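A.,

Following up on our hallway conversation. Structure tokens first:
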């Protein structure tokens, strides 16, 4: 639970309008579950949990010093259900190397700045619904999502569910090069 002096932070990718439409389209076809609100759909890169002001500054510094991979297109092709938590999701067939690089470098930079992360390995996915069950519908066509930036997000729990706002954004590399990121 966040205290008045902490914020729940995570790094994430936020979908383009077209990718969001694709995500909402498949979410609507789920047989059961509590759907994630359209504005909240995202892919988590690294979950930091409750952070005080010092940890927030270290997280921003870590992201700024990152050697970002080039921009790329993420193709989401499959749906799945993680039965135990009841998470309905969409995911790429395989995690693209640029996404592996982004997450790996982010994890390393956060560790170097003294920010502990969940030990569980990264599994690229977008949560569509929770408390989901039943047969997952197949995508009618792959969702193509241009990944041009990543964001540091803060989450606040409200009576209507979680509310997310971005704190900072960093562009990925242009023209296939690998460069150091900075806030937009
Ligand atoms: P998800 O990626 O499976 O949806 C903000 O809470 C985001 O961080 C959510 O997207 C959530 O799950 C992800 N996340 C990862 N680990 C978490 C944890 N231990 N507690 C809450 N959210 C977590």
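Then the amino acids I'd put at each of the 184 positions:
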């Amino acid at each position: 639970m966040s205290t008045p002096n902490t914020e729940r932070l995570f790094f994430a990718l936020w979908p383009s309008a077209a990718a969001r439409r694709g995500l909402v389209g498949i979410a609507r076809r789920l047989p059961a579950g509590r759907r994630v609100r359209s504005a909240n759909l995202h892919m988590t890169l690294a979950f930091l949990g409750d952070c005080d002001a010092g940890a927030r500054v270290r997280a921003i510094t870590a992201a700024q010093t990152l050697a970002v991979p080039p921009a790329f297109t993420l193709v989401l092709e499959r749906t799945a259900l993680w039965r135990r938590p009841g998470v309905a999701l969409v995911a790429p067939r395989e995690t693209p190397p640029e996404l592996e690089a982004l997450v790996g470098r982010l994890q390393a930079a956060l560790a170097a700045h003294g920010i502990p992360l969940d030990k569980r390995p990264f599994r690229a996915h977008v949560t569509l619904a929770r408390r989901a069950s039943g047969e997952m519908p197949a995508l009618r066509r792959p969702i193509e999502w241009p990944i041009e930036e990543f964001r540091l997000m803060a989450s606040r729990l409200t009576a209507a569910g979680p509310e997310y706002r971005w704190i900072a954004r960093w562009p990925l590399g242009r023209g296939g090069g690998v460069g150091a990121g900075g806030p937009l």
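The longest strand covers residues 161-171. Curious whether your intuition agrees with the design.

B.
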